[in-house]
Amino acid sequence: MIRVEGITAFVAVVESGSVSEAARRLRLSKSVVSERLAELERSLGGVLLHRTTRKLALTQDGAAFLLRATRIVQEIEEATAEMAVRRGTLSGPLRIAAPVTFGRMHLGPALYPFLAEHPEIQLVLDIDDRRVDVSSEGYDAVVRHGPIVDSRLVVWKLSRSRRILVASPAYLDRHGTPKTLADLDGHKGIFYTNRGVADWRFQTPDGAIVVRASQAVGMNNGDMIRDAAIAGLGIALLPAFIAGPAIGEGKLVAIDVGYRPEAEFIYMAHPEGRNPSAKLRAVAQHLRTTFGDPPYWDPAD
Predict the structure, then answer these.
(1) Which of 183, 250, 268, 284 is the most exposed place for a label (fewest CB within 10 A)?
(2) Considering the chain, what is the average pLDDT of its residues?
(3) CA atoms of 13 and 28, how far apart (whole Å)
(4) Buried b (16+ CB within 10 A) or exposed e, 277-298
(5) In terms of Cα–Cα distance, which of 28, 1, 279 is closest to 13?
(6) Contact, 216 vs 233, CB < 8 A?
């Protein structure tokens, strides 16, 4: 007989890439996870994983079985969550990925009271600025700032995200304050490299206008972009949730060039074809309510 514990162990090993990491996620010993894998292979009559000292690789049988095994694990988790909802509680594992700066400044503080209210939820929050593959890396959802182009994801809007063109007072004293979009051409820009382009987009009555300033530095983290702007290295286009405190403290100055940057949003996205669990829907609604509309971090005009 095939045991559910073996299927769960197999999926966890594939998603995490190692027996030791799967054991950590499942809160089991490595020996227990290995035994469950071996028992599953004996029950199926085939080898699912090639094991070496350095890595694990799916066999053809393993790759074929993984699709159904993943669905089985998901269905069990969702059924368990639904039963918890019927009892008036939310429970079970939940794995979410989010960008570093937003996660540290706003997502974490928003989630802590929710988790205190629902102590049976076992949240794993992975903070990383890279673009994770939600489905293949085993996440229930990802929180992102900016556009999501992956057609395999179902996207929920959590909040608006206003962006502000900023520079330090010292930089503006040295180079002058731009008043128009054309003035930006003569300035140095600090750009977010994860977007893959070094430009700024603004809303005008005639549509979007793209401005490409000379790149002073490129970085893949919002905190560091803010700090580089404070250090006077150039002009940066930052979300209000990052730039707001520095503007309030006088470390950065908001620059008005006559037009606002294109609007962006904070999103939560989950894999297409997977029914979102009750606890994930509850988290999303809690975040919408906590962030507000307009969001609490937006500076007053």
Answers:
(1) 250
(2) 87
(3) 12
(4) bbbbbbbbebbbebbeeebebb
(5) 28
(6) yes
Where is average pLDDT lowest: 68-72, 101-105, 248-252?
68-72
Residue 11 carries which side chain, given as an amino acid letter?
V
Q: Is 76 helix (H, G, I), strand (E, B) or coil?
A: helix
| 234 and 216 Cβ atoms separated by less than 8 Å | yes
**Consecutive H or E run containing 56:** strand 56-58
Task: Encode pLDDT of 84-115 as tens digits.
Answer: 666 667 888 889 999 999 999 999 999 999 99
Residues 202-239 pLDDT 10s? 988 888 888 887 888 998 889 999 999 999 999 999 99
Output the CA torsion sign for 245, 248, 252, 254. positive
147 vs 230: CA distance, rounded Å: 26
**Domains delineated in the chain:** 4-84 (1.10.10.10), 89-161+265-291 (3.40.190.10), 163-262 (3.40.190.10)
CB 23 within 8 A of CB 30: yes
For the chain, what is the largest distance between any 2 Cα atoms, rounded to a whole number of angstroms? 75
pLDDT per position as a tens digit, 253-267: 999 999 999 888 999
- Distance from C-alpha of 14 to C-alpha of 55, rounded to nearest angstrom: 11
Q: What is the pLDDT of residues 287-298, one digit of tens each?
A: 999 999 899 998
Q: How far out from the chain centre does Cα 44 lie?
A: 37
- Residue 143 structure tokens: 């929180």
Other beta carbons less than 10 A from residue 24's beta carbon: 14
129-159 confidence digits (pLDDT tens): 887 777 667 788 999 987 776 667 888 999 9
Terminal CA-CA length for the chain: 65
Q: How far apart are CA 8 and CA 171, in angstroms?
A: 56
CA 170 → CA 132, 166, 176, 205, distances in Å? 37, 12, 10, 33
